[in-house]
Amino acid sequence: xxxxxxxxxxEAEKAIILQRFGRICFANGHVIPEDDxxxxxxIRAFVSGGQTELDNIAxxxxxxxxxxxxxxxxxxxxxxxxxxxxxxxxxxxxxxxxIHLKTKGDYGQPxxxxxxxxxxxxxxxxxxYEHTVYTCPTTGWKYFYTTLPVTLLNSDDDDDGExxxxxxxxxxxxxxxxxxxxxxxxxxxxxxxRMRQNRILVFDGQHKIAGLLWNGRRDFxxxxxxxxxxxxxxxxNVAAHDKFSQTRFYASVMVKKLGAEFGDDFERYxxxxxxxxxxxxxxxxxxxxxxxxxRADLNKRFRSYLFNSVLQHDDNNFxxxxxxxxxxxxxxxxxxxxxxxxLFACFLYREPVEDDIATGAxxxxxxxxxxxxxxxxxxxxxxxxxxxxxxxxDGNQRRLRRLFGSKSMMAWSELVHSAVCGVxxxxxxxxxxRPFYRELTEQQIAVVRSVIDRLVSSPIxxxxxxxxxxxxxxxxxxxxxxxxxxxxxxxxxxMGAPD
Length: 499
Known about the structure:
The chain is α+β, with helices and mostly antiparallel strands. Helices cover about 45% and strands about 10% of the residues. About 35% of the residues are buried.
């Protein structure tokens, strides 16, 4: 018979729990030292139906008991396990989660598929499935609905040089929210996947599957396409998550996905043997005809390709501080959105050019390298010392947070642009619009670096905590820019004029 839990456990009840669990913290399994106080808490919260009896009580260390807050103990334990998983690396998908959880048997096992036009059969090593085949009235693609074990599923990631259809990475908070949601709610939509090389790959619904996995679910409802046009299906999935969704793609994920796809298509276009000169503008026209994309969609892919080329460059040190999501974090304060409105807006020409890529007039690669060198100058002279662990009272960290606030970056990037155009003697409109779309000598790069040095060395950023600078930097870009000029941080000063 279970012993009912009173407001305070007596020593006999504590002994029963310790005999059952040992001095092991239920949150993550670490040993509670003999000198530390053992705390006791509900495994399943009372408000969630957990019984107030010893069978529902477990020991905890003091630190985890306080950190748990109002979360039920089991949910807090999952929260800690999620943090452990997401600390392994960035850009994690369902595939990485399956490896982490080491589900029963293997994952993504190959299957044999037979389709007679009306019935599809799937044979794995130890199971046989039969399902009705449906046909999409718009595309003519065949698909079926099924419930499959996790051992037959994998994530539709990039693989063997082929761009996968998985549009984004797992987001820790979203996985945890879905884990809690599915404790008491049904799943309304199936996961969506496709057959590729005898494997079933999921590209929509990975967060749902992840949330259910943490709840112990091992079988998942799916809609599976048999032989779709991968590019059209990928474009449809991008539109579903971006254009037609209330929750937009995380910007850096969109950049990486669309940039990679655009890069593959660009290489294919450059290798066409049609006797015609090749250019970025020509490629945009080619891609628009081939894939029936709008100008807005083409521009998004083109800019993603440019951004991706800079950020994924092997020599780019700055990019390690660019957040995976569309919100900065303590460790990664810069977002793609911030870059697109600051450094990229001023130094990366984001329109396709007509220059023949086979001639010396085409200098996009040099422009990308120039942007990497500019960002590395910012990294070397400022961002490399960024350390969120030192606390808000650290003078250098306060200076860097001011420098790399969103409004601040947008304002000083424009001032730096004016100064760089000045030191490079770029005066006509076209040259100033494309300041880095050219070959720059090492001496010119050194001069650009000196502009950045004067920017980050300005005493404005080191003012005391109570100074008006923090209030000003929270206003709009124009106000910040005018204030910086009035404080002496103008293009003349950045070019080397005395204070």
